[in-house]
Amino acid sequence: MKEMATYRELLARVKSEIDEVGAAEARERHGDALFVDVREREEWEEGVVPGAVHVPRGQLESRIEGLVPDRSRELVLYCSGGSRSAFAAKALQDLGYENVTSLTGGFTDWKRNGFPVEAPRSLSPDQRRRYSRHLLIPEVGEAGQERLLGGRVLLIGAGGLGSPASLYLAAAGVGTLGIVDADVVDDSNLQRQIVHSTETLGEAKVDSAKRTIQALNPDVEVKTYEERLTSENVERIFGEGWDVIVDGADNFPTRYLVNDASVWHGIPVVHGSIYRFEGQVTVFNPGEGPCYRCLFPTPPPPELAPSCAEGGVLGVLPGIVGSLQANEALKLVLGIGESLQGRLLLLDALGTTIDEVSVQRDPSCPVCGEHPTITEYVDYVEFCAGVGR
Amino acid sequence: MTKVRIPPTLRNEVGGERELVGVGDTVREVLEDISGRYPALEAQLFEEGGLAPFVNVYVGGEDVRTLDGLETRVNGASMILLPAMAGGAPASPAALGSRRAEPGSAERSPRWTALRREGRATHCPSLLRLPATRRVPGRDAC
User: Fold this and answer.
1) Own/partner pairs for B26-32, CB < 8 Å, 24+ apart?
2) What residues of chain B lie within 8 A of the CB of A182, using their CB?
3) What element of type H or E holds B13?
4) Which residue has the higher pLDDT, B55 or A185?
5) Which residue of A has its CA nearest to B7?
6) How many other C-beta atoms lie within 10 A of the C-beta of residue A124?
7) Average confidence (pLDDT) over A176-204
8) Tell me, what's the ipTM?
9) Cβ contacts (< 8 Å) between A179 and chain B: which residues?
10) Mean of the pLDDT values across residues A92-98?
11) Which of A33, A210, A337, A360 has an alpha carbon within 20 to 30 A of B28's alpha carbon?
């Protein structure tokens, strides 16, 4: 017959098989080690060790690999008194985690020592339902959703690309969306610009988009800029603290202006462009990867660069490209995955192919290179017209 | 034999083809081979004997500017020609401003090229100009 053990005996055995750490020593490791709070939600909501991730004991084994893929990472597990975290530490050891300790005395002892405690931000029950499919993804989870809700994304253009991008970013719960567009909704827009509708014909695009976005998700604050981005207003608009810019502009002067301003403000740009059946998507991350001028030092002459208004575009193409832009923007806000930095995706909707070419930082780039020659806004119209070249 | 992907904006120059096959060991030889068959392409690809600065050429997914330029050997890899595309939110003519070239300008390349050499051509929205007081005449933005 199998030997029976009492709870106390089992706990003692588990504690003998794991490493434990006292509050004072844990305090010294705070900052290097990742603290994992294994308590229940109600306990967690009353206060946590700053920076701790919350994984209730019952979900630990199923979620930890997504949250901490590196099994050599130093982990300090805590519960309220040090028992549940002991069992949790044993479970993680069994999963192959090599550097796990359990906080003896738990959060209670940590608090009694006067060590730092913070109130966790937490989602409302409504938000927990709305974003439940995000909360289930280990790479997003509650912490990621809170990042999204605190995220700020600026969209240049509320047209073909800005429509799907703004809708998906809003649905995902990006807390603040800025939209720059001076145009009004025209009936020729509605073949692809799905953030607008027949009802908003003639309205400012920023207002039309704001209405649709807020109907989709009232969590999102929409800041509208009913103006065309220029050298005169770019500092004011970019200076409002954006995490990511989604560039869906329709002309080269704006593209180069967005580039220069984003390099100087250090804001990553998710770039998308479309024509007929073909699209291009990439990410320009100042200081980390190439910028738009590294990729295209010189804009093409107009016969090589007709706009969609001149050459046309398949309605669904901006849906695909704008959604890819939203995906890149979400990853940048969340700080997960691998962005398109250094890679340009080339989509051909007619052949349904996706190619990828590499984009490298140009050391001689006039804006982000080693010895920049452009350090203030230029006349982007003259630049695109080739004056002085 | 090297496959060369033609971007939509250059297809008028090659009879609507999406892909051409060129012969040659280097990027220059392949491009000269297809330009020989489609002379209209040559004006868009080459400038003063070199590659036009507004066209990117990739061999095996790498920008030839980071390799040996026109002398890059193709070694059986496929090539992609790629000019920048502006397209995104379409703008109404009113929003684009009066300095925008008329749609017909796409057919007037030689004239535009001549104007550009003189520094008089533009196809850009007027609202992106700096105020006259802040302009640097003839400034080389590159």
Assistant:
1) B26/B70, B26/B71, B26/B72, B26/B73, B26/B74, B27/B57, B27/B59, B27/B64, B27/B69, B27/B70, B27/B71, B27/B72, B27/B74, B27/B79, B28/B70, B28/B71, B30/B2, B30/B4, B30/B74, B30/B79, B31/B4, B31/B57, B31/B70
2) 95
3) none
4) A185
5) A278
6) 9
7) 97
8) 0.73
9) none
10) 95
11) A360
The distance from CA B26 to its chain's CA centroid, rounded to whole angstroms, is 20
Q: Which residue, among A156, A203, A307, A346, would best test binding to B if mutated, counting the most B CBs under 10 Å from its CB?
A: A307
User: Given an 8 Å threshold on Cβ–Cβ distance, is B9 in contact with A181?
Assistant: no
Find the CB nearest B66 among A181, A273, A360: A360
Q: In whole angstroms, what is the distance from residue A282 CA to residue A321 CA?
A: 10
Contacts of B142 in chain A (CB under 8 A): 297-298, 366, 383, 388-389
Q: Do residue B18 and residue A359 have CB atoms under 8 angstroms apart?
A: no
Strands B55-59 and B50-51: unpaired
Q: Is A127 on the interface with B (CB under 8 A)?
A: no
Beta-carbon separation of A307 and B63 below 8 A: no
Q: Which has the closest alpha carbon to A253: A288, A304, A292?
A: A292
Please identify among residues 83-142 of chain B the ones whose CB lies closer than 8 Å to any CB of chain A. Answer: 83-93, 95-96, 99, 101, 103, 105-109, 112-113, 116, 119-131, 134-136, 138-142
Query: What is the average pLDDT across A286-295?
Result: 96
- Say which range, A100-104, B46-50, B119-123, has the weakest mean pLDDT: B119-123
A250 contact partners, CB below 8 Å, separation of at least 6: A157, A159, A307, A308, A309, B86, B87, B88, B89, B90, B91
pLDDT at B43 over 90: no
Question: What CA–CA distances, in Å, run from B52 to A33, B46, B56?
Answer: 53, 5, 8
Estimate to the nearest angstrom the gap between the alpha carbon of A17 and the chain centroid.
40
Is beta strand B55-59 parallel, antiparallel or unpaired with respect to B62-63? antiparallel
Contact B8 A302 (CB under 8 A): no
| Substitution target from B81, B102, B127 for chain A, most A beta carbons within 10 A | B127
Burial of residue A16 (CB within 10 Å: 0-12, 13-18, 19+) is: exposed
Could you tell me how many CB contacts below 8 A there are between chain A and chain B? Answer: 237
Please report residues of B whose CB lies closer than 8 A to that of A377: 130
pLDDT band for position B88 (50/70/90)?
A: low
Report in angstroms the alpha-carbon separations of B29 from A189, B2, B13, B25, B100: 44, 10, 18, 6, 37
In sequence order, the β-bridge partners of residue B83 are B55
What is the C-alpha to C-alpha distance for residues B62 and A356, in angstroms, rounded to an integer? 9
Token readout for A197 is: 């509708």
Lateral strand order in the sheet of A244-247: A221-225, A176-180, A152-156, A244-247, A269-275, A278-284, A343-348, A353-358
From the number of C-beta atoms within 10 Å of its C-beta (0-12, 13-18, 19+), residue A88 rates as buried
